[in-house]
Amino acid sequence: MNEFELIDRFFSRPLPAGGIVMRGVGDDCALLDCGGRVLAMTTDLLLEGRHFLPDADPASLGHKALAVNLSDLAAAGASPRAFQLALALPRADETWLEAFCHGLFALADEQGCVLAGGDTTRAPRLASETTQVDGPLTICITALGDLPGAAVRTRAGARVGDDLWVSGTLGDARAALACRRGEFAGVPLADATSFAARMDRPQPRVALGIALRGLATAAIDISDGLLGDLGHILKRSRVGAVVEWERLPRSGALRGLHVEQQRRFAMAGGDDYELLFTAPPAQRKAVEAAGFTSSTAVTRIGRIVEAADRLRVVDGGGVELPTPWHAFDHFAE
Ligand code: ADP
Ligand code: MG
Questions:
Q1: Taking a C-beta distance cutoff of 8 angstroms, is the pair 203, 295 a contact?
Q2: Shortest-distance Cα residue to atom 15 of ligand 1
Q3: 101-142 confidence digits (pLDDT tens)
Q4: Which of 15, 25, 64 most suits a substitution to test ligand 1, by most atoms within 8 Å of the C-beta?
């Protein structure tokens, strides 16, 4: 059972008709109908040993814990408003907390997202016969945003003939992980530093998400790799897609890697936090203008096709490329 089968089987329940919840499990945000205005709500959990290493920089952790939630709000096109913070801390370390808050509130203030509550507890001490270790640091944020009812978009709105677009560049965060794991040597220091910044300080595409209201027919934020997350749009919209490999936006640093690594990292690396979205070809100019006004690069990378044509990645000559990698799945091992 993979992560999504598990969620489908145990946590996807029919929504009560006429209730406040318009969209529940299965999208980047839950959408609540507040009488004309729609509230978007999302939760993400960061767990030491799973999402970050024990020696992770606390300021970056504070930033990232909120950024990944704001990225889900961006996919829904919501304006961030407030968040709640739940922490399980191994110890009350003042230096750590100060740095964590610095990273967290710098982003919160920049985005106008206000801390409105939470919960704090001590992580349990885990004892074996010989040693005692602190339980893992756990950071859980629930973020709330809002949007006009007419601007609601989900993963389910992609239509055959729509263009497929992505923001920013892909693959850098996965390259950072590879550098950190020592998977390859010889990467210039400047490139390794720029990869690390993408992994540690993702920039949620909130302004673009808002600028795409009424333009994007479907959207998702890329957290588990382009192809895996595109798969969620295709499944929910019941369509297929053709992705043109050569159009995929890659940083100069990523282009310095071997082409096989570029492909794997850009198409199946995690932690990009870019927006992947669809829009009708008639809106090309408007989408480019949305990118311009939000100071966010947007690139057209393919198109939506019939479901029977599934998901294909092609090279410049239209020849299908193999994509033997899997999207990140917490229960894959
Ligand atoms: P994202 O990567 O956009 O944060 P996830 O892949 O974590 O989304 O989750 C997919 C969907 O499943 C989301 O709609 C999320 O709200 C829902 N989900 C995940 N875990 C649970 C759970 N334990 N109970 C209810 N819904 C869940
Ligand atoms: Mg998401």
A1: no
A2: 25
A3: 999 999 999 999 999 999 999 998 888 888 888 889 999 999
A4: 25
